[in-house]
Amino acid sequence: MSDIDICIQQLDKRYSRRVLKVQSFCKKIIRSAWFSHTPAEVSLVLADDDFVHDLNFRYRGKDSATNVLSFETKNQPPKGFLWLAGDIIVAYETVLKEAKAQEKTFEAHLAHLLVHGTLHLQGYDHLTEQDAVKMESLEKKIMKSLGYDNPYKDVE
Fold first, then answer.
1. Domain covering 4-145 assigned CATH 3.40.390.30 in the classification
2. H-helix or E-strand spanning residue 68
3. What is the pLDDT of residues 106-131, one digit of tens each?
4. Does residue 34 contact residue 72 with C-beta atoms inside 8 Å?
């Protein structure tokens, strides 16, 4: 695992009610999903649906909240400089609603979305079937290593 700094801004304090030591938890999950060998910094924002809705509309043209957004920095810096890998933003109400609908704990669903977002920052995507299979396979492997169930078991 490479050096990675994780900066967390907790805009919505409800995360702390759902996950014990939420900032340590988030750092552990992101580090577990980080495969890049370039020293990097990741920014995580624990937000609410309104905040994510605004970003989703502004940057993706979608007039709704979503569970997680990732904004990756495509250009890596010169060797030896810290890479600002990008931002992960999570929407509290959507995560809670989806966790309940999928009969998962909030913690397990949040872990999956952090893994998902971290993989996006490293260039993984799910736009094609082949890319989706590759990314989901990695997500399952990481989640299993963290002690969680297959996040796609209800979909398969």
1. yes
2. strand 68-72
3. 999 999 999 999 999 999 999 999 99
4. no
Name the residue with tokens 């940057």.
59
Closest CA to 49 of 95, 13, 5, 100: 95
Q: Domain extents for the chain? A: 4-145
Question: Using 50, 70 and 90 to split pLDDT, how confident is the model at 2?
Answer: low
Query: Residue 81 to residues 30, 44, 74, 87, 100: CA-CA distances in angstroms?
Result: 20, 20, 15, 18, 42
One-letter amino acid identity for 19? V
Strands 68-72 and 40-47 come out as unpaired
Task: Answer yes or no: are the C-beta atoms of 74 and 119 closer than 8 Å.
Answer: no
Q: Model pTM?
A: 0.93
Q: Residue 17: which residues within 8 A CB-CB, separation 6 or more?
A: none
How deeply is 28 buried, as exposed, middle or buried, from its count of CB atoms within 10 A (0-12, 13-18, 19+)?
middle
